Amino acid sequence: RSVAQPLTLSGVLSGSACLPSDSTCFCYRKDGWSDGARCSTEFSVNCRDSNRPSGALDDVRGLHVAFVLLSALCISALGLGGLPGLLRNSSDLLLVGGRAKVVGKSPVPWYFSAGSSVVAILFGATLGDMNYWFNAQPFYDIGTMNAYWDVNPSVHAGRQHMDAGRVHFADGVRIDESKAMGFKNVDTYCVAPIVAQAANVSRANPLSDWWAVGLNCCASGASFTCGDVGNPKARAGLRAMRDEQRPFFRLAVRQAQGQFGIAAPHPLFFYWMEDPSQEILGYRDRGMDLFVKSSFAFFVLNSVLVVIVVTGIAQLMPVKRRIAMWLESGVSVLKSSASSPAMADRYLVRPDIEIPAQAPVPEGLKKKLDRNKKLLAEKEAAVAAKAKEKRAQRFALKMRTNAYEKEYKAAETKLIELRRQARREGSFFMEPDAKLMFVIRITGINKLAPKPKKILQLLRLRQLHNGVFVKVSRPMQQMLVNVNPYVTFGYPTLRSVKDLIYKRGCGKVNKQRIPLKDNQIISDNLGRYGIHGMEDLIHEIYTVGPHFKQANNFLWPFKLNSPKGGFVAKRHGFVEPRGGDWGNREELINKLIKRMN
Predict the structure, then answer these.
(1) Structure pTM?
(2) 2: buried, middle or exposed (CB in 10 Å: 19+, 13-18, 0-12)?
């Protein structure tokens, strides 16, 4: 009655259609107009509070359903096209006269085409539907509605602007935050009246048809922070168009009516902002951006999958020929890429194959099949035993790691207590002598005397910025005195030792530099010394344990980066007044390690 809306085709054919407004929903019958309740009861028409007739929504959803069903039917037919190939592929390997023969063709292209098309249709329909409802539909709905300027809430009633999509209010219009209200239903639906600065509030029930709304932006109605409330330039509103949200906003308005005595016969809901036009254009831009990015992502993913499938098909026939050779020769030994020495993990034993009852089987092939069965049982037992052993080693390493952490904590606590005791007694505490040093080479190979060159070779410092752990002893200190101008060293902390080994630790395996990516590498080389993992290795190095020599020799010299910020002066000592780099840094070596690691 108050808004003229075109009737949809479904509404005309059914003899009824909905004309909604913000406050009342009407239905048109063949014999005249009726209210929404009667219409929905007699004709089962869902009258929604929207600026688009419900018939249009049903038409769009019907088209979506029909499109998806039709696409699924076509793709199913496409997929069934590969069924003959699958049936042929099931008999690819046949024993003919005791020999293996490869026949048939692969249906992989058919199934890839069908599967990728199904995924594209489903994801395209889903993402397109979401993009429409969240971006395109608000843009079209609000764009087709009217825009009003210089609206004064104290003068203009809501029923005069039922078709408002954008509203620019007059000067002095504000949001009355003191009358904000929230309705809790999973989310908090917040409302606050939009009033004029000089509004007449002396009436018993002041009129307020203009409301600012938002989600989860009011603390139990005590405050209202929705939209651009804090922006002094904001004097406009964008119509709230979500059908599922409007009933809850209306309930919040009813709560405000009961608490503050506000009369709102035709409430209109707006999002408070400075420029509604930019927000509408934002809907369009987000929708187009999502469309372009989704299309590009599908193109890239589909291209990658096509390359993978084509490569797999190209390698399919050689694989079949290798399988035929395995059947013909009985057992084929394939070396695994893993570094585990367990024979059960390195050898592949083909299980028994089904032989047709009518096919003649030579005696030699029968013996090979019996041998395969025996070898397979032995392999399964060996693999199970190996897995059990690994689980036990992993659990034992976990327990030892916990013990190491307690040991480190106890040592640190003891040192702190001794320092406090010395302070209480007015004496001095002598720090314990360091047991571990970390040496870094800071010069190259040019102009080196034979003796320092030989010492650097013994320390395994053959390259610039190489670093090694060494045990503090009198012979080692004398050697470092001879190479002082070429190295810098100090006493690393537990944190520095862990950072070095975890980040740059490499082991010497068969005279090769192998990164420590698996505890099994450490266990294979140092297991006889009771070192089976990274934490065992760190504990042996940091505490300079009984097997420090073997553990340190297993570690490849660390290859460090140039320090961040550079060196100060390599030609001068660290303890010189002007400052330098070579020599003993004691605990300050940890800062250099952090800059070079």
Answers:
(1) 0.41
(2) middle
